Amino acid sequence: MEIVISEDPKSLGQKAGKLAAELIQKAIEEKGSANIILATGTSQFETLSHLISDKSIEWERVTMFHLDEYIGLSISHPASFRKYLKERFLEKVGQLKGYYLIDGQKDPHVETDRLSEIIDKHPIDVALVGIGENGHLAFNDPPADFDTKKPYLVVNLDEACRKQQLGEGWFPDFEAVPKQAISMSIHQIMQSKHIVCSVPDERKAEAVKNCVENQVSNLFPASILQRHPSCTLFLDKGAASRLSK
């Protein structure tokens, strides 16, 4: 794992977005297309903004997969990650080769089977992810399942995860935060050829320290990124503030 520390979220996003763009372009040059995973949430604002500003990417050669989504949430809800990706990515990059959004309003087990079958046929070149305040990777809260090989799972959201979603302003109150989600599995994320992990904000500092400086453990789900052969962790000064010198 390579760690890059920036002054603030904007410069973090510029660096992370630049690397993601370069890796996507390289995949297109080498094999004619690229398969990517996109995360959502406030941590990805600047990274996605910089990525879509790169006009050299041939988006019509890119297939996008969605990292996670709440179960039972309408696409019109402010917290919907489908809504997030449509407004912040799909409507801005134009025609893609393909994209696969998670529909949390369908039968979740049917939906996980559908998406798992599709992604099995699309080896991922670049995954853009973040780390939660509880150390989760996607919605794989601790203790995360490191063993399952199924690409998409139905997961329960712990209290810390739900409080983070409330704190970020996506919901009016704690009871409104869903208790379950569909999430890409740890194993599937780790199959990505390259991982670009963007983590701004001091409120993530303890999680970053736990996932970077502790041994790999499912109690710190994102610690598994230590084992990935090509993972770059982008932090701002706040998120990096508790790391040892």
Account of the 3D structure:
The chain is α/β, with parallel strands linked by helices. The chain has a single domain, classed as Rossmann fold (3-Layer(aba) Sandwich). The chain is 32% helix and 19% strand. The strands form 2 sheets. It has a 7-stranded parallel sheet, covered by helices on one side. A 3-stranded antiparallel sheet has the order 4-8-7. Helix 2 links the parallel strand 2 and strand 3. It is globular and about 40 Å long. The relative contact order is 0.19. The mean pLDDT is 96.
Record keyword descriptors for this entry:
single chain, alpha/beta, Rossmann fold, three-stranded antiparallel beta sheet, globular
Strand-helix topology:
Blueprint lengths: L1 E5 L2 H23 L2 E5 L6 H8 L9 E5 L1 E3 L10 H13 L4 E3 L7 H12 L6 E4 L22 E5 L2 H9 L12 E5 L1 H5 L3 E6 L5 H9 L17 E6 L9
Parallel strand pairs: 1-10, 2-3, 2-6, 3-5, 6-9, 9-10
Antiparallel strand pairs: 4-8, 7-8
Q: Would you list the SSEs in sequence order as H and E?
A: EHEHEEHEHEEHEHEHE
Structural domain count:
1
In DSSP terms (H or I, runs of 4 or more residues), the helix count works out at 7
Roughly how many Å apart are the termini?
16 Å
Structure in a nutshell:
With 245 residues, this protein is α/β, with parallel strands linked by helices. It is built from seven helices and ten strands. Strand 9, helix 7 and strand 10 (231-236) form a beta-alpha-beta unit.
